[in-house]
């Protein structure tokens, strides 16, 4: 009956800490994230805006930076301890992914920066600043980080990131070996090789999705997702986006992988943003990665619905 | 800004693996768990029934055993690896909680059994048997362990346990030090000392709740909870229990601690059973345990609703 | 098989048009209805405030008037046509309920005012003013009367009224004969006579509930209800009231009668206000009124939950 | 301020009583409606099956009849009284729509049959048989017609019908004048004339939708809809259809017109079947029909989602 693992699972990273998005229309993007998506602006420093969802425990989870083209500035993964951080830096170097220490940024301390095989800039860190609500930001329940925001969609907390990779197995292998990401599901359509991998750090269905880059480029972002509490909140988000004149690209519907309930919009700068809820939780320490083969590439929903072509074609930076 | 921890968090236990409930009316309890609560009967062996929820990855998560009185037979926590199991056994012994190895049971291999300071029998183990669905038990999505059960409440997967302890801090301290449970919230009403502690292993708000035993006894169970996917499922469970003539003791409502959505019923044997959904998820590795003080002992709901007296008075075994 | 009716059902009244609430703390009540309950203030005239829910088609559905004591000022029922109004005035007079024509009020034209046998002031009218949204009040869907309000609870539209009557059958008989209210359900606990009647005009489970006045008085209000779209909105309202520090008296839960999903709060002036959703819809023209007998007086919920004593004791005006 | 109507609204028809569907694969269709859609089989007589939803008050609301081709056999509208029935028969004749009396069918008495200008066979009737539950069909609440069905989708009650008409205004004009259907919304895309009309009898957003037949034929059915209680039930229906291997054509999503929450499947015989929930309720007796013009023909959802081409192309009978 027993299952034997020669190798122990690693729990050195705790969470997706923050992401930096680049936008060619900084003011419009900022208005979108504050007024429509419902984040709070925590600081503006060095030309960037730092935002947070009302359910985030970190001070800031989104950095918004003006740039010539939309895309992912970098993504930050938080370690469970200072020692764990050191272990992961060593593991990264062992995996041949060297990088540099930076001093820190608004909301967190020193971080080790490296580039994933798929080209995205990443960092790992431990020291960070907690959000301390004051005044009307104080929640009515002490186990909430902040009073609930009812502005726009009211996105609650950062949830996951989907990056594109020319070689999916190569990138997910490094993320697994060096950082302890666990492979939860992967998609291998007949004759296409592995086109998608969904990985998580602890109990989530995914903190990181890696899907295949089909263009001759690298380092691109497919989407960044914040979570809301119930799928009813996703349905209300659909109403809110419609009321506020922001077109929905895809959803609301239920993903096949992760079983999350979702919808996608494109923020003014061009980056794809998800409103996500639910999804399976994974408690088995020896979860066997689920191999999806029967569905052809386009099937992304549990209900078999059609996927709009843009969902597979659009990523940031947009190619010239 | 930084936070410094001298001690690293321990992630050696993965999940609440299973619980054993004792019942003086075995047949009635079994019918309740299968027909009303919606679990599947996996095996009957040695006089006990072994059941599972359709969302459980383990073969069995509930063992039902005939006994003179209702109560908790034992509870099993699953380690993340064989090595982690050994480390926790050593830590238990170091904490002065000695125990014995047993060979295993239906669904899992060798386990180390010990008694918590609060008197409940517990075990930790790693080797376990995965459920392999066949025939009509096969799910339509490969990332579900089993086809969804629509019988009765359709309880999805084991979620958490609430035990009573004469000395709450003593028990939660051992669970923290020896097993790596993290304290998430605790309740200290004015002048009463700590009357409740909510602890979890990884991202959940709680895998284990410990509340104060006010009777001169020990080892009692307050409730066992299975989760459902949405709070709408809890509302439907209320309809289902009512349709099937099973009185609801408390709920549906929203907990203050954990923010879970809940309802409670008493199974025919007398044990309190919860249908639970949602609740906060904890991703910060340095989560600061939330101290609840302003609410007097009786306030268990986020909406300030009255708690029925039985909720504080009833536990199993019932005292003579 | 057939059913034969000698008498035809009457469809001369269309809807609960508006209600007037009296409050001893006008400013506080107004702030509650605008900021917490989420209505819009349409006009202040003659010392009264006129408000509307974002889903109301009438210009105003709530009139708030300063008074020495809380209570119901009057309630207005809208006829389906000018001719129907005349028919109902004749029927009221035939039933011995004389009254007087008034010229109208903000939002509606001439109305015939009379006093129900249970003492509440009522009026029937036809001519009324539609709400015409402009600017940011314009909805994104042309079949919504107004852009959705996300402030506070965001109560959507006026739904029903519960009055107290010393003699329930007497009042409901007049409402049926003179105005065409259809009896949908009634409650006759053993040995108590008829203590409640639920009546509606067309497809709703109730536009008017009449429950027994147990004090030596008349003309009192039990509660006024606005509807929200889904029961999820009632759950969210529970959060909102809690966040805004407004205690919930009863609910969220599911009514036995009407099967509506509900919660109750007391507005600052003392009147009980409901947030209501769902409930059965009645399409059979020969619906047989449902006689409830098995449940004792206190059972108001479909799930058998306890009713707080205040729910049966409190009404407005409060007795000295 | 006032509104003046020279003509009074007519409330002589109460409800969509039943529909008859034709199917070339009777056994498969019957299995679908019982096992997947969740209706109960009430009788099999004269080669047809008679079914009901658990929330229907009529004995039977769906007649399933073997035929060479799928399509609508007939649709039955129930009058509010015997006198109202006679008035409507006279009005039909006055409108030039003659017909014949039939003796009745399982579940209802004599009916007047006529053909709508758009070619569908319709009947109006009053005498009907109520469903009387016995044994385990008895509901736990006396205001439910039957114990809730948890089999398959558990469709609750018949809701509405969408027919195709070569000339939409002609058909809706007759339905209004002769039968008292009220026009609630209509769609007039630029340069296309009126391509859709949504009409109802009392408080619903629609009992009957009429959309343009673009093929050189008449008498076709676009879809038949049963309602479920919450939009969560529609989401669960999507899971259920997927689990049972029945493809979803369109939805779950939210309609623009009616604002109902929906999904569509094609039953084995080829008829399109909807699972519907919610939608606006109309209480104003002088509701002004909403003219939709800004959206081009294909926009059927409130969220601007794409409509699958089959939704506009497929109807029954399918053309050769």
State the main characteristics:
2,3-Dihydroxybiphenyl 1,2-Dioxygenase, domain 1, 320 residues, 5 helices, disordered N terminus, alpha/beta, 17 strands, globular, homotetramer, metal ion binding (chains A, B, C, D)
Describe the structure.
4 copies of one chain form a homotetramer. Chain A has 320 residues and is α/β, with parallel strands linked by helices. Chain A has a single domain (13-313), classed as 2,3-Dihydroxybiphenyl 1,2-Dioxygenase, domain 1 (Roll), CATH 3.10.180. Chain A is 17% helix and 33% strand. Chain A is built from 5 helices and 17 strands. Chain A has helices spanning 26-36, 82-94, 168-179, 231-243, 309-313, and strands at residues 13-23, 40-45, 48-52, 62-66, 71-79, 99-102, 111-115, 121-125, 157-165, 182-187, 196-200, 208-212, 221-227, 248-254, 260-266, 272-278, 290-292. In chain A, the strands form 2 sheets. A 9-stranded mixed sheet of chain A has the order 14-15-16-13-9-12-11-10-17, with helices on one face. In chain A, a hairpin with a 5-residue loop joins strand 14 (248-254) and strand 15 (260-266). In chain A, helix 2 packs across helix 3. The longest helix of chain A is centred in the first third of the chain and has 13 residues, at 82-94. Chain A is globular, with a radius of gyration of 19 Å. The model of chain A is unreliable at 1-5 (pLDDT under 50). Chains in contact: A-B, A-C, A-D, B-C, B-D, C-D. At the A-B interface, helix 2 and strand 17 of A face helix 2 and strand 17 of B.
């Amino acid at each position: 009956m027993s299952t034997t693992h020669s190798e122990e699972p690693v729990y050195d990273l705790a969470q997706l800490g923050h992401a930096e998005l680049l936008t060619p229309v900084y003011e419009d993007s900022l208005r979108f994230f504050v007024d429509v998506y419902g984040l709070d602006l925590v600081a503006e420093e060095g030309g960037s805006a730092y935002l947070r969802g009302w359910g985030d425990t970190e001070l800031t989870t989104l950095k918004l930076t003006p740039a010539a083209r939309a895309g992912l500035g970098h993504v930050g993964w938080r370690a469970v301890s200072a020692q764990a951080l050191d272990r992961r830096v060593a593991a990264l170097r062992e995996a041949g992914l060297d990088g540099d220490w930076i001093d820190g940024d608004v909301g967190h301390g020193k971080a080790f920066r490296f580039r994933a095989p798929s080209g995205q800039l990443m960092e790992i860190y431990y020291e960070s600043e907690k959000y301390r609500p004051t005044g009307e930001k104080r929640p009515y329940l002490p186990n909430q980080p902040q009073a609930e925001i009812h502005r726009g969609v009211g996105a609650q907390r950062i949830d996951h990131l989907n990056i594109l990779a020319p070689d999916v197995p190569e990138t997910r292998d490094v993320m697994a070996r060096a950082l302890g990401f666990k492979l939860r599901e992967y998609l291998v359509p007949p004759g296409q090789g592995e086109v998608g991998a969904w990985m998580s750090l602890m109990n989530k269905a995914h903190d990181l999705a890696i899907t295949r880059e089909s263009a001759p480029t690298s380092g691109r972002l497919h989407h960044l997702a914040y979570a809301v509490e119930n799928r009813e909140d996703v349905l209300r988000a659909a109403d809110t986006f419609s009321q506020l004149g922001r077109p929905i690209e895809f959803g609301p519907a239920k993903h096949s992988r992760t079983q999350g309930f979702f919808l996608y919009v494109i923020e003014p700068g061009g980056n794809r943003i998800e409103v996500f809820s639910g999804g399976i939780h994974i408690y088995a320490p020896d979860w066997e990665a689920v191999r999806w083969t029967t569905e052809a590439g386009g099937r992304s929903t549990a209900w078999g619905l059609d996927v709009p072509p843009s969902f597979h074609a659009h990523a940031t930076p947009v190619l010239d």
